[in-house]
Specification:
By secondary structure, the chain is of the alpha/beta class. The chain has helices at residues 11-23, 34-43, 60-68, 84-93, 105-123, 161-171, 180-187, 196-213; strands at residues 3-7, 27-31, 48-52, 75-79, 97-100, 136-138, 141-144, 149-152, 155-157, 177-179, 220-223, 227-230. It contains 8 helices and 12 strands. The protein is globular and about 50 Å long.
């Protein structure tokens, strides 16, 4: 049973969503502010967190920033209906996905299940060895899907589930272009719609993380209006 942390200062959302998730077989922990959630996470991390952005004591952005210092676990942001800046900033800070308020609880459940499936696919040691699961080395890059481990020039880089899948998809075929639609198919289930901005934000975050290991990292090339490709160095 996966444990989901639901963090929102709206008690109606906490009550209704937690009931839905529990009915779907999840164990749910609820918190009405970011600081309370962080205190609990410091004692024991959940399998996934669903975070509101605007909360008292500590907002969702600050909580995500603290969380990313210790864990790459999947995170979904709940964002205001018209606040696109929050969506982009959240993705660039390391969120895996976002759902706009007001939202369908069924949609949220689908997003949660999709992320958990992706997490399991790249971390379980019981899967068959395939092109997607075996250790991959491309120049200075080394990726171990079974350990969810990435290293550049021997320096480890911590990636979220989405960032890992995008880098893996690009690096598997150096020099070949992947369109945004193709990358969406890699990172998201068919029933989950995301727009181009979401993929762009994940790629920017991915580049930023790789540059923590190497200031001169430039292996991911943008082809404007077409997509991205990985150039082996």
């Amino acid at each position: 049973m996966s444990r989901i942390a639901l963090v929102d200062d709206d008690r109606n959302i906490l009550t209704s969503v937690s009931m839905t998730l529990e009915a779907e077989g999840f164990e749910v922990e609820t918190y009405n502010d970011g600081q309370s959630a962080l205190d609990a996470f410091n004692r024991r991390l959940p399998d996934m967190a669903v975070l509101d952005i605007k909360m008292p004591r500590m907002d969702g952005m600050d909580l995500l920033q603290r969380l990313r210092q210790k864990s790459a676990m999947p995170v979904i942001f709940l964002t205001s209906k018209d606040d696109e800046i929050d969506e982009v900033l959240g993705l660039r800070m390391g969120a895996d996905d976002y759902v706009k308020k007001p939202f369908s609880q069924r949609l949220l459940v689908e997003r949660i299940r999709a992320l958990l499936r992706r997490q399991e696919a790249i971390t379980t040691e019981e899967v068959a060895v395939t092109e997607e699961t075996k250790v991959m080395e491309r120049g200075n890059l080394r990726m171990d899907p079974l350990r969810h481990a990435v290293a550049w020039k021997g320096n480890e880089v911590s990636l979220t589930v989405t960032e890992f899948l995008l880098l893996q998809a690009l690096a598997q075929r150096p020099g070949f272009v992947k369109s945004r639609d193709q990358l969406m198919d890699v990172a998201y289930d068919d029933q989950v719609y995301v727009d181009d901005r979401t993929i762009d934000s994940h790629i920017k975050r991915l580049r930023k993380k790789m540059r923590t290991a190497d200031d001169d990292f430039s292996a991911i090339e943008t082809l404007y209006g077409i997509g991205y490709r990985y150039n082996e160095e």
